[in-house]
Records
---
Amino acid sequence: MAVSDTTIDRVAAPRPTPESLLAKQEPPGQARLRLYLGAAPGVGKTYQMLLEAHLLHRQGVDIVIGYIEPHGRTETEALVQGLEQIPLRRTEYRGVTLTEMDVDGVIVRKPAVVVVDELAHSNVPGSKNRKRYDDVLDILDAGISVITAVNVQHVESLNDAIARITGVRVRETIPDYFLRRADEVINIDVSVDTLRTRLRQGKIYSVEKIEQALANFFRKGNLSALRELTLRQVAEDQAAKAHDYRQREGLEQATIPEKVMVCMSSRASAKKLLRTGSRIAGRLASDWFAVYVETPAEEPARINPEDRVTLMENTRFAEELGAQVVKLKGKRVADALIEFARREGITHVVFGQSARSRWDILVHGSVINRFLSEVRDATVQVVPMT
């Protein structure tokens, strides 16, 4: 079937390779799970699933639609045509007839692959399972491979981060173990401007919701942060799967890109650290972080005015050198730095060391010593400060 010029930009993932086609050569019972992950509604997850379904169908794979939600998008509805659909189950709830995926009907039909949209959906009370992801697990247990999709805001472990970014507390989530169960997690991505344009064109929400969405969830800052979270989630999944595979096969673990962290302060001497970090990152061809920990004593209302000016200068200098500036908040500098280093997989750390008496270190402790005792898989460089 032909794809019109107006829908070409919705194809966010490359044509699947023969190696990636689900259930083509899998032995009986080896059901596979492919999950498309998006930063927000409208990136093209459903569209891509249907494109893949048509490709598999043309190659002779027995594939059906278990549940699809076109959201009124004409080009998506067109792709539903030509694919077998399992009739939905109708349920009466509070005087209203609602439809749900017929899990038992899918299992009885027993195709090789089933497409299941809206993974985070909560089923009607009285259904076999409370959540659709539980339906998918039942289907997988029956030996049927699944292609499904979800947005990053529905990942349970990211719920707090999503609330901070968007101001919206997402109620429908999927557990992280479901992502770990997936054989493939694939990012479906479009630029922020493209996504906002689709919204304005009425391709995501109805007309009366567009302006509200643009001013809230679909703000540029929100979408940029959600894209970053999605990329990180997919990268972490890929790294974990690659690690498990190499360990299972007895192979040496692959070298990962280096990550450099410079522990920046509100002192003028911090520029020396930043230059050192820039040189190290340049040698390693790596991205790097300039990290500043805001303690209660250095909150905006309490920080010394001179220190505030110096911190702003250091931040601008770090950005000019190409660093990603990160401000953390914490009562203890060491705790915040250790947590960040572990979370980001930091491999090189640059500290500044001013002259301190041994008595001062004994009484107040040393951030560097604490870091060295807790983080043992990072190279630490201490730069003397004058």
---
Amino acid sequence: MGRGATILYAARAAGISIPTMCHKDGYKPSTSCMVCVVRVEGNPSFVPSCGAAVQDGMRVWTNTPDVLEARKTAVELLLSEHAGDCEGPCRIGCPANMNIPLMLRQITAGRLDLAIGTIKADIALPAVLGRICPAPCEKVCRRNAHDAAVSICQLKRFVADWDLRRFDTYRPQCEPAGGKKVAVVGAGPCGLAAAYYLARSGVRCVLFDKNEKAGGALRTGIEESVLPRDILDMEIHQILSLGNIEFHGGMEVGLELFDSLCKDYDAVFIASGENSADKYGLKKTAKGLKADLATYQTDRANVFAGGGVIGRRRICVRAVADGKEAAVSILQYLRGQNIAGPEKRFNSHLGQLMEGEMEQFLTGAEKGPRCPARKEGFLTLEAMTEAQRCLHCDCGKADDCTLRKMAELNYARQQTYKGQRKPFSRQAGNSGLVFEAGKCILCGLCVQAARAYTESTGLTFSARGFETRVAVPLQKALNEALTKEAMEKCVAVCPTGAMTKI
């Protein structure tokens, strides 16, 4: 190794991976996060590998239990004061985990063509659910603490209805057929959702239902005044016409037919609703068929079950979520992968707001009251105005946040150290750049990145000690301090979502 080479680069050259967070290649190390620590012989303390020079004959331990525990502690200390949510409370509260904040941004921008894709990535029957869902997402909306929740369910319905009225309705791009076929027993909301997401992944699905028409309890248990049958029929038609899906109505699946399906199909998904668990010869519980609640797999390897057949689903969106999640597990089974079900990501939670923080969230949001719901649904201007009431609680870098990745890698918990978190603050420029100081770990990467653009003032460290923060020199506005190129670079190198662009 050359003169001044660090332990981190020496390890990489030897094919040894050391996790990093505040370090970026080409930038001067700040050793601020301590996630890359190692143990060096003769040194009683842990050493940050990104800044420690390597020496001939040095003996270094990179993966011992005490090193791993030190990294976990470093991450948990950062999380204890982190002022921000990875995902908005609304998305966490949605059983289907729909990306609600993204949908709201797309509605605000008038991009309904994108919003319907965002919705259907997680919810197969949005026009239906937009009419019958009790909206658990709205119950946890942060705006409730100010005036009233954003009308998420009505906005979802608005987009779905807009799509149904189009000649060229939304049709997701499906993966090529892979030669696998799955039998889905029950064409209610759970079975329809499972078939929809399996078909999108290139799996041929055959739906069997005792009724002549698909829909299950949606058709038989809900008044038409609440759920018009033409809406239900149109959404079911969208699913069945996706390709790779067949529907066989008027077929009651008993034990004999079920055994045949298990032999003739690569996998079977049972979604036949409540009070139907006795027909399949599988293990049961007091609630219904016995299935792993994380993967939906039963005691028969190629059989999965979800919805009311494994336990009462009080709300339809939970059954739809079961179908989507079970499809993930079935795909893992068909591909010979470990059956683990949907990925469960780490989520930072801001928790209860402190004084003055609601005003920070309201910055840039529509200040008006909740738009009253109408039986016929929102008009376009109403929908756009209502969507603008969103406080955008989610992190703009949730899918690419190094702190989140390190929390997952180290199995970290946010509540291990219950100190006082940083205050939430949000500074936004008219360029779309957002700076949230409560997420900043003072790694200085943005300060270094901005220095490359001398035509702007850049960024600097302000104050000292515990009061140190990243700030704009000369009291200029954020958008005045950075060129477009500098903004993009600062956002790219920020490891915690403190700097994002909307």
---
Amino acid sequence: MSDKIQKNIIIVGAGPGGLTAAMLLAHRGCKVSIYEKESVVGGRNAPLKVGPYTFDTGPTFLMMEFILAQIFSETGRNIHDYLKITKLDPMYRLVYKDAEILMNSNHAKMAAELERVFPGSGKPFKKFLKKEKNRFEKLFPCLQKPYSSLLDFVDSKLIKALPYLSPGRSMFSELGKYFPQDDLRLAFTFQSKYIGMSAWECPALFNLIPYVEHGFGIYHTEGGLNAISLAMEKVCGEQGVAMHKNTPVRSLIRDGRKVKGVYLQDGSAVYGDEIIVNADFGYAAENLMGPLRKYTKKKLSGMNYSCSIFMLYFGLDRVLDIPHHNIYFARDYRKNVQDIFKNKTLSTDTSFYLQNASITDPTLAPKGHSTLYVLVPVTNNRAGINWEKEKHRFKELVLDTIQDRTGIKNIRSSIRAEYINTPDDWEKKYNVYTGGVFNIGHNLSQMLYRRPHNKFEELENCYLTGGGTHPGSGLPTIYESARISANMLCKKNGIDFPVPPPLPEE
């Protein structure tokens, strides 16, 4: 690239979005510097070390692996030179109060399994695949372009996708077109929790999430999904990205609306041509960006945010004989969901997710030991729960529930290491606004043009990446948010960039 188009890019935060943007922009000839407050990259996609055990801090499901492969490919690299990736079979196990089902991306196996548990559901499952594939193929191109102007809506791809938005319908009601049984609908709507919403409120367009699972599968990377961030860091280093860890940013440097750089926590100033913010949006708007006219404190407090999660990370002195991913529905699932999203209280009958990654990946624990990752969806910090008071009581409730529901006996006696993250921890340690780990809510009034824009609408020379901007929360969409922002930055500055490739075949 010529000096004429080289730009000095500052990225605030080395989460998945910041790392992706850095990889792409450095490859395109930009001078890129990342400022990360922690000693390790990844944000909530970082490794969590507890004694000899390694956990993913946050995400554990890798979907749409092809997007990640495209990012590496665009920098001239083969993803398999950096990551050992395994497609999971089964994808995960669902456990109800009186039944369980193994979910598989092999469609014939999946239809047979559904027939075993829910007789007569095999044929509707095939209808689901056909119809939702069509929805996904129409909507996916809309997730790869920005919505920074109302003119962006005058687009043939979006116009073709409009009938597939199913406005006014929820994921749960839309699934009724295929499956009359409530329990079966749960198998294809619990995924609303991936974006922190209730299946009874989550827009029906998000039925593309369960389709993506069944259409493309779920993957694990050796060492945990955190290995993706570490691999991205390596690529960044190979391309000359300046990585400044243990270097918190205090605020943006502004001249009116124009952003000129960042002030670091130590008071020093760093100047750049363009700034990309890869911090939780609510936190960044309130603490890093300076006074804003649209996203004021009042506006931020009035927005809808996702639920939170109560996390337990256990190192066990034995190996468990359960699948890699396990989801246990509360006996009264709908009440549990209402407690999280409406009643804003803690359920005594709770749903939970167990990741037994050591059954797939022995690198995470010493020989004969395993890691157990326990995720419990809970209300966010708007509920005012005193987690210092509640966390040990709630931990014991979760352990009792695991022992009661899973068949894992004497779990307490096997625990050799543990770590807890409460909603308070997500807010105070990880700078997540109100502890809503899946970011701003994904209701239609906070999507597309009405979500904070990739090229941030309030400031000049400022771009966003992460779950708080378009297209939303989740690793694949965060990678896409970074690609969108990088492409917009390049278009502004006359830097060539490739168009995202078409969808691969299943």
